[in-house]
């Protein structure tokens, strides 16, 4: 990261302000943010930093700066041909190949994990596996996972999270040439759970990733996925669906870096909020680098506020460093129910409360139905129905 030089003082210009009085110069390019695997390299988090200003940092203090248990934990992996899991040492060359931390919580996890969980995927036959974590417990914990997808391999990997947890972690996805991975990260934590995660994806030539984040549970959940489209014709689709209840904070900071030529990305996140203090945050950064000629990208975020007292923040950002692209765009919208949709349904005899549920159901199911796993889609649809049953009739 570069810092501005101090201007030369002349007789007509005032003396520069002391260094401690100057406002920090923001980093305008996402790829130029400071990164490190050591938590001590990051200053204390105040909540005024650009990457933390929307986050309830006081609630996450133990994960950002506290002592963490980095020992291996209990997990379950459903059997699938060509999918294996094992623990690897910190000095394994694959660790850090997809990305390294750009915030203190991610670095705290990196500094403290003892071994990384390696999930290896091979074979060109289509397969599905589920990695379940449901017994992490209450003490603050660090974790690191590496998902390595061999060239030409094709799989769906479900990361199922539930139960109690105070967890900060890093997850890396390494996709070889022409690999195809659908990864679905499902957060159904207990109501008081805390979860901070950084997901890094590195895509070789012709690789494709569909990353789906579904967050329905947890007190504070901050899941930040990033995709580096390094190889030519790499393709990334980042999808998200979330439902925030009273006092629940759900946050996503998405980053897509187009680096190779003729790469493509689509980012679509949709969320619903209800209850006093329900809060969601979505920040989408797309960087088209100088070598990424022929890029085709679009990102969007939609939020549906169901009751008073809920708040959604949505910030799309787009930076282009080459003029030779196919297309680039972004969109963001936050609003309440569509009165015309409600009127249409009620005019056909559907009661208002049921009409509201139908609107929200269709709004979120657009994301869920793109997962590609019928059993998981059905289960998530039932979970969303349960959320809707709590109270959508209070919307104004």
TrEMBL record:
InterPro entries: Fe-S_cluster_assembly_SufBD, SUF_FeS_clus_asmbl_SufBD_core, SUF_FeS_clus_asmbl_SufBD_sf, SUF_FeS_clus_asmbl_SufD
Low complexity composition bias: residue spans: 1-14
SUPFAM superfamilies: Stabilizer of iron transporter SufD
Domain of life: Bacteria
Pfam families: SUFBD_core
Ranges for region Disordered: 1-34
Residue stretches making up the SUF system FeS cluster assembly SufBD core domain: 140-363
Gene Ontology biological process: iron-sulfur cluster assembly
Family: Belongs to the iron-sulfur cluster assembly SufBD family.
UniProt name for this protein: Fe-S cluster assembly protein SufD
Source organism (scientific name): Leifsonia shinshuensis
């Amino acid at each position: 990261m570069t810092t501005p030089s101090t201007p030369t003082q002349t007789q007509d210009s005032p003396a520069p302000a002391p260094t401690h009085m100057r406002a920090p110069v923001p980093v305008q390019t996402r790829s130029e943010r400071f990164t490190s695997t050591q938590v001590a390299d990051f200053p204390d988090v105040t909540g005024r930093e650009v990457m933390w200003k929307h986050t309830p940092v006081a609630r996450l203090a133990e994960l950002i700066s506290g002592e963490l248990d980095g020992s291996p934990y209990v997990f379950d992996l459903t059997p699938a041909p060509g999918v294996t899991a094992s623990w690897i040492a910190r000095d394994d060359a694959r660790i850090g190949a997809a990305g390294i931390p750009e915030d203190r919580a991610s670095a705290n996890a990196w500094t403290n994990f003892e071994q990384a969980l390696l999930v290896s995927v091979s074979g060109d036959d289509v397969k599905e596996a589920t990695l379940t974590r449901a017994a992490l417990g209450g003490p603050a914990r660090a974790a690191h996972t590496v998902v390595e997808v061999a060239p030409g391999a094709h799989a769906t990997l479900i990361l199922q999270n539930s139960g109690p947890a105070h967890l900060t972690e890093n997850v890396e996805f390494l996709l070889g040439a022409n690999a195809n991975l659908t990864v679905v990260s499902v957060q159904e934590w207990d109501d008081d759970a805390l979860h901070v995660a950084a997901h890094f994806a590195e895509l070789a030539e012709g690789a494709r990733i569909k990353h789906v984040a579904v967050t329905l549970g947890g007190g504070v959940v901050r899941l930040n996925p990033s995709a580096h489209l390094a190889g030519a014709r790499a393709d990334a689709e980042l999808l998200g669906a979330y439902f925030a209840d009273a006092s629940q904070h759900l946050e996503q900071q998405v980053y897509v870096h187009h680096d190779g030529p003729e790469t493509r990305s689509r980012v679509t996140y949709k969320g619903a909020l209800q209850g006093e203090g329900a809060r969601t945050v979505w920040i989408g950064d797309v960087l088209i680098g100088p070598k990424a000629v022929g890029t085709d990208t679009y990102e969007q975020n939609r939020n549906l506020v169901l009751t008073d007292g809920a708040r959604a923040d949505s910030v799309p950002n787009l930076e282009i460093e080459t003029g030779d692209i196919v297309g680039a765009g972004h969109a963001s919208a936050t609003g309440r129910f569509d009165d015309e949709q409600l009127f249409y349904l009620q005019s056909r005899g559907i009661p208002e409360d049921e009409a509201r549920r139908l609107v929200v159901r269709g709004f979120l199911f657009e994301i869920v139905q793109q997962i590609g796993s019928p059993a998981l889609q059905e289960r998530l649809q039932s979970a969303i129905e349960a959320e809707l049953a709590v109270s959508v009739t209070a919307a104004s």
